[in-house]
Specification:
The chain is of the alpha+beta class. It is built from three helices and eight strands; from the N terminus they run H-E-E-E-E-E-E-E-H-E-H. It has helices at residues 3-28, 133-138, 154-171; strands spanning 35-51, 62-66, 74-75, 84-97, 102-109, 114-120, 128-132, 143-148.
């Protein structure tokens, strides 16, 4: 290859690289336009439910979520861990992106900023807790704790178990 031909090849390769880099930079700064897209998506957060007297985890807890505009404002997917309730919440996802780059992803509440959740178990009182939805979106890995007071105090349950055991012994 002659030196002149080699020089042309290098100049052409540099021009292609410079043009490609220029197109990428131009796209990064939105020269070819930025698209905005919104859709709905579920965000999950976890709540650990514990007995208020003993501190042990409580399983089989159901939830009911309320907002002023909705009496069924969340879902409850199957739990992965005993004593931890997974709650899924519908939010709007707003995405700004160019051809090659995702500029911004932002989540906003669908209805209002506050979510009220009632925790339901047959042997415990039903506490209601309030959660700020923007905070839930910002900190998805945070695990909240809810103490649930038993309908029958632990001491009374122990006396009842002893009485039941005594009745079984008398009956055998």
């Amino acid at each position: 290859m002659s030196p002149e031909r080699k020089k042309r090849f290098i100049v052409a390769a540099a021009a292609v690289i410079a043009l490609s880099a220029g197109l990428v930079v131009a796209d990064y700064f939105g020269a070819f336009g930025i698209s905005k897209d919104s859709n709905t998506e579920f965000v999950e957060f976890n709540v650990r439910t514990v007995d208020a007297e003993t501190g042990r985890k409580i399983g089989n807890v159901k939830v009911r979520c309320f907002q002023y505009t909705s009496n069924n404002a969340c879902g409850q997917p199957p739990g992965r861990e005993h004593g931890v309730v997974r709650i899924s919440l519908l939010v709007e996802k707003h995405v700004k992106e160019s051809l090659l780059f995702r500029k911004e992803v932002r989540y906003t509440p669908v209805n209002e900023n506050e979510l009220r959740v009632m925790f339901i178990h047959t042997e415990y009182q039903k506490p209601v807790r309030r959660y700020n939805i923007p905070e839930l979106i910002e900190h998805p890995d945070q695990v909240f704790t809810v103490e649930m007071a038993p309908l029958v105090p632990a001491a009374e349950r122990a006396r009842q178990r002893e009485a039941d055991a005594a009745d079984r012994e008398d009956g055998t």
